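**User:**
My hope is that you can spare some time for a protein that puzzles me. This is the protein in question:
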Amino acid sequence: MKPFIRMRGNLVINGIIVCLFLLLSTLNLFAQFDQNKVLKSLDEYYSKSLADWEVPGMAIAIVKNDSVIFAKGYGVREIGKPEKVDINTLFEIASNTKAFTAAAMAILVDEGKIKWDDKVVQYLPWFQLYDPYVTYNMTIRDLLSHRSGLATFSGDLLWYGTTYSREEVIKRARFLKPIYGFREHYGYSNIMYLAAGEIIQVVSGKTWEEFVSERIFKPLGMKRTHTSTNSLKGLDNVAMCHTDFEGKVISIPYLNWDNIAPAGAINSCVADLSKWIKLQLNRGTYKSVQVFESARSREMWSPNTLQNVSSFSEKFFPSTHFRAYAMGWGVNDYLGRKIVSHSGGYDGMISYTCLIPEEKLGFVILTNKNSALYNPLVYKTLDMFLGGSNTDWSAMMLENTKKQAEMEKKNKTDEELNRVKDSHPTLELKEYVGLYGGELYGNAQVKLDNNALTITFHPAPKFYATLKHWQYDTFTVRFLEFPSLPEGKITFIINAKGKVDEIRVNVPNPDFDFTELTFKKLE
């Protein structure tokens, strides 16, 4: 028995040594991590970055261990005006809305009213996509996972600024041609989230707005959170949207997104969104009130659709080995932790929500300008809390942004130099006048006004512009009601008989694919 006693004694001693080592290591870690110092450093970094990126205002909140440890507003609500941003200032959070729609679905799953893998046509019999097989087999999980086969942002011009109803937007999606196989590739789709919102109404008997307000906003006490820009009228403490236009920062009006609401229409503030973060980190429970079961939380955070890790990401974020989309959230790894996050892009406002479940840590960033400012702030915050490098992400990314802008300017200059300036339209201007249209989008009207061609998109009357001759049968177009969109080109296609067959519109931008739109000459 002596050898066993000796062995057991060694195990006990070794165990004590290990425990002491872990205790000392933990104490040393706490000694190294001074939360107040970290927050002070971040506060200074946030403030400097806001100025460097020339963003009028933003608000940030950080939650740790079920407590709001930081919440602050920076800058102003609107450029040229004195009103400051604070933690109650309202911003449009755009696609951060998707996590609320997924949570609403989770509530219905808890109640046994739906299953994640139920087919969409079971609830929306009129639902139809380009491929009959995809139409029949599309599930709720597919809607929430961006794996329909459509390209990222495909069809977004169906709802952007148009008078189309939600149902009409979804029905017109049947004309969108997929570029991937079903469930084969990631393709971000706002329209599929709109369909999810319609299912919520069919199943619950309440509109998407009523359901998320009653089942999520109310139990969390999110009293300043709204589902429509229409609700902002008459409210105080509302941030204005901003963009860069002709070398300066300008404010731009809100554009109503009610016809795509389940994908991106929520307006909120960091004071309210910190409660949403607490709910998420507590896996569906807020102050002892269970909104959805913890099992649903795990399901919403589980990868469904893989995304590529780019060469840029490999170079600058070497600790990130995978990226994927779950349901309402993107997931990836960073510095050995699982990151659950989502961005939101509204015209003139960019936002980001980030959860680090293992650390019981989460934060939200709301900004009031079309800008990538949120991106360096995300990584700086993660590095400060997770022990990352001391990289000045803001300086590095701002320099990259400036280089990209210079490259785009050079490309535009080169294009102008290659333009055939002394060319003329093939036909007299009156020959280009007429009604053009297609099944997907609808009609556009070309008119002759004071010896200049104009174009108006019937589904979205704000898409109106005067055309300026560029070369041959190509004209430049600038939709002034949408300052965020750059100048584009409209080309009239002439057939062998010398008649106009169609027009092709191209406005190069990262969000809306104008080349999807077909405008054939209608006799």
